[in-house]
Write a structure and sequence with these properties.
five-stranded mixed sheet; alpha/beta
């Protein structure tokens, strides 16, 4: 293996002629010296009229040398300096002749245009309109596919449904356990700071139980499932879209909505209420860890206060919300996956967009359902 000689440029000026000598091996793996010193010498104020090259000590070279030479030649022409390439090797001269054989047409490069804030706002509005339209169309197609499946004209594979149940449910229990226990701990600590002012630490159990069952348990489970399962759905369907597998399904007469989207949607609708109940239990246990260890409250007292504070309507509200979250997570993940482009970067963009869209859907839905429950006195 031949050792690589370090590359460098040495310049010398004689009257109005600037000579640039290339030394060493100019390869992609080499450390290329900057051209800033020689480019500064080509300035008109330096009285340089001609630029010549010396390659007597030039070793091996590849496209790196061509890039540097083109930059020097272009800068020389820009400054009105005559560039002499006759001393370069024949291979380099031939490549340079190819480069400058057809000049770049004027106006070929687009000038950068800065949009005004009004144009940006309008483009955002158009994007939001198109995205909303795509969501409505996707929901309509999914509804039609569900009706078709119920009428027996299309069949959903049961194994796909149970596999999605496994991926969405038992596999997600560790992360939901950790987050829910931590949320219960945080609620207990935050509430204890204020309740301790009145000597009412026993009501920590009420606050943690109601907070977890009515909202926080289902909300945290939904956020976790958005980042975990919604992103997975988008990546799976996006990869199939990039590999033309969805087009192949359509060609063979399979409805992608029934075959791919419906099992994922039904799996999340079925599993999210169970995950909500599990998250509620873990959050209550997390609150119990704080209450029993840091305050003069026994575990029996904590559980009795929790049982007296929580009613079926509170649990039902959290389960209902979580079922809605499951629909929204599946819609966001599958929608972005079906909209994915045909490249690897498009799959990554679809995955990111699925998580962002799912979280936005969840927050908006939670606010709307909370206001409805408040108005109804639930």
């Amino acid at each position: 293996m031949v050792a690589t000689k370090p590359c460098s440029i040495q310049t010398s000026q004689h009257d109005s002629t600037l000579e640039a000598a290339f030394l060493g091996d100019w390869l992609l793996t080499a450390s290329i010296p900057p051209l800033t010193p020689i480019l500064s010498q080509l300035d008109k104020s330096k009285a340089v009229k001609q630029l010549v090259f010396s390659t007597q000590e030039l070793g091996r070279w590849d496209s790196v040398l061509m890039i540097e030479l083109i930059q020097l030649i272009d800068e020389g022409k820009k400054q009105g300096v005559q560039v002499d390439t006759s001393t370069l090797p024949e291979g380099i001269q031939g490549l340079l002749n190819l480069v400058y054989a057809v000049p770049e047409p004027s106006g070929a490069r687009r000038a950068a245009v800065l949009d005004s804030w009004l144009a940006k706002f309008g483009n955002f509005g158009l994007l939001l309109y198109k995205d909303s339209q795509a969501v409505i169309v996707f929901i309509g197609e999914l509804a039609l596919s569900a009706v078709t499946s119920l009428r027996g004209k299309a069949r959903m594979r049961p194994e796909d449904f149970w596999r999605n149940i496994q991926d969405c449910g038992p596999s997600a229990l560790p992360i939901i356990t950790l987050i829910s226990v931590l949320v219960g701990l945080i609620l207990a600590f935050v509430g204890a700071v204020q309740l301790a002012l009145f000597g009412a630490q026993v009501y920590i159990a009420d606050m943690v139980g109601l907070g977890m069952t009515r909202d926080m348990g289902g909300l945290m489970a939904a956020v976790i499932m958005t980042g975990r399962t919604g992103a997975t759905f988008a990546a799976q369907l996006g990869t199939m879209q990039a590999n033309s597998e969805i087009d192949a399904l359509k060609t063979m007469g399979f409805d992608p909505m029934v075959f791919l989207v419906l099992p994922r949607l039904l799996a999340l609708i079925c599993i999210m209420p169970m995950l909500c109940l599990y998250a509620d239990l873990m959050g209550i246990l997390g609150g119990a860890l704080v209450t029993t260890n840091f305050f003069d409250i026994s575990l029996i007292q904590y559980l009795e206060r929790t049982a007296s504070a929580i009613h079926m309507k509170d649990i039902g509200m959290g389960i209902t919300k979580c079922a809605v979250y499951g629909v929204l997570i599946a819609l966001a993940g599958c929608l972005r996956g079906m909209q994915c482009g045909r490249s690897a970067s498009a799959v990554g963009d679809a995955t990111t967009s699925a998580v962002v869209t799912g979280i936005v859907f969840i927050v908006v839905a939670d606010a709307i359902m909370t206001m409805i429950c408040q108005r109804l006195g639930i």
